[in-house]
Batch of 2 targets.
Target 1
Amino acid sequence: MVDRPRYFDALKANLREGGRAYVNYDSGHFVADADLTERAKGLASRALARLGSESRYRKRVTADELTELVANSGLRIGDDKVFNTDLKRLLPLLEVEQRDAFMQRWLAFEVELNELGLAYRDELDSVFRTRNVLLSRAGDGPQASPGPR
């Protein structure tokens, strides 16, 4: 999304009291060491957005930027998880009958990694390709603790 502050304001405006919004974003596709193709896609998407075509807009959101966007729109982050390690690249190398078991182990491994209690920081975006946060209105009653990040 191009106008991120407007997006987060709209999230808050559309949340019912006690409601939650789940936001998932690809953090790892925009790292500085990304391949040339990914960088070119990002540059092209920003140029196209300026011309009015926003559907493929790509621009990294840092951890600090997300925190600021959430706070400025009167929201708060509850649950904060990271997923999508590059282990998925192994899937096509496996025999078809091995893939379901691999996917189950991969998910269990990523859940376990989230239970380590690592606080998300931008250096982790080359390991975890997506960040997933559960948002609520800042003024709503107590929310469960964020738990492992």
Note: The two ends are 24 Å apart (CA to CA).
Target 2
Amino acid sequence: MRPVHVLTTFATIFPAELPDKTMVASLVLTARSGQPLGVWAGASTALVAHAGLAVAAGGLISALPDRLVALVAAVLFAAGAVVLLREGGGIDEGEAVAGRGGIGTRWGAARTALAVVFVAEWGDLTQLATASLAARSGDPLSVFLGAALALTAVAGIAVLSGRALLRVLPVVLLRRIAAAVFASLAVVSVVEVVRG
């Protein structure tokens, strides 16, 4: 395990997940249930499972030739940057995702958050980014740890102070920061292909 890969993964995934539908869904589920610990536990469980799946996919990708992996990573990061810049979003989309009943208890909130977040995260940008980072780094454990820490931290922020964060840092700004990180990683990957 290499700390630099943990930190790089965290720095990539954290800003990308902040403006994501998962944060919005966690905000709404917490507001509706009054069970922040239950929502955090359920959302975090789903997010860690997705990080594991993404790292496993990255392991399969890493079996490909290095130049192809770098090219695929560049394309994924560039596409992620474009999607982040073009995506809309706000509380309304989260309320549509989270509009489910039976969440008044801690267990009910955890179960609902687990189901909502697990379904919502399939094919998400951060899942694709995690797979790309795992493939490029050759250090799946560090990438998994960095992604899991970033994702559970965002879920924690969402349930504790998400609405306040969104008042201070607009979703548009968070998306632009994440897009800049993704674009930078795309450039680094292209440089690797060219140097190949």
Note: The chain has one domain: 3-195.
